[in-house]
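subagent[fold] <- orchestrator: predict structure for attached chain, return tokens only, no commentary.
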Amino acid sequence: MARVKAALLFLAVAVTAHADWTIRSAHSEPGRDGVIHRQVSLEDSETNESATIDLALFSTKSCTLRVIDQPAPPRGDLAQAMRQERCLAGVNGGYFEPDYAPIGLLISDGKIIAPLQRARLITGVLAASPREVQILRTREFSRRREFNAAVQCGPFLVDLGRSVPGLEKTRTARRTFAAVGSVERAALGFCSGVSLSELAKILATTRLAEDFKLQRALNLDGGSSSAFWFAARDGTAYSIPEQKTVRDFVGVVPK
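subagent[fold] -> orchestrator:
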């Protein structure tokens, strides 16, 4: 019996390992103020599915985040906003109603645009000040802490370095996310063609960059809202545009 249990345990571990996403290729491009564009191509050997993740990696010692709000038309796209506000990199932000009213907490340039909400989907807050960048559970957020920028979104993808259980497994779409790691490192990212569960697994089990051990990750508004932008050193930009107009953006800015 002991041998049978040991064999079954070995098979379970082998299947789990086999099903992990693996890196096929990766390359990095330096930007300004130490921001790095890291593009990673991955494959699930069990399903033959593939995915590409674009990361804007930065040090929270030299950079922080800014929420760029577009309360009224005309509303521009991510690339336009990033250039106009002299950002180093950026993605689209949080959820919004059909009339563009923000869903959940939104803080831009220190001003509270919309209040914190308690809802099943928007379980986390991406928050930043000149001192720190954090991803917080909604219950962890306190207005007594002075954040210059914050966007409430969700669901949580990774917590304590592990993928969050119970995430949706079947619907694939474009995804945008924020992540924080150890040693004062953070990232904004974009991935297409994966479910929330698959994205969480990739982020939790794959070392996407040698100097970035991911601890927490939060899903931002996805689907046709998803966008990614990065400013290279030579003045050019790498851009994945959104497919519809959005309310707000999250940009990486120097301190």
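orchestrator: received. Logging for downstream: Confidence is low (pLDDT under 50) at residues 1-18. Residues 106 and 151 are 5 Å apart (CA to CA).
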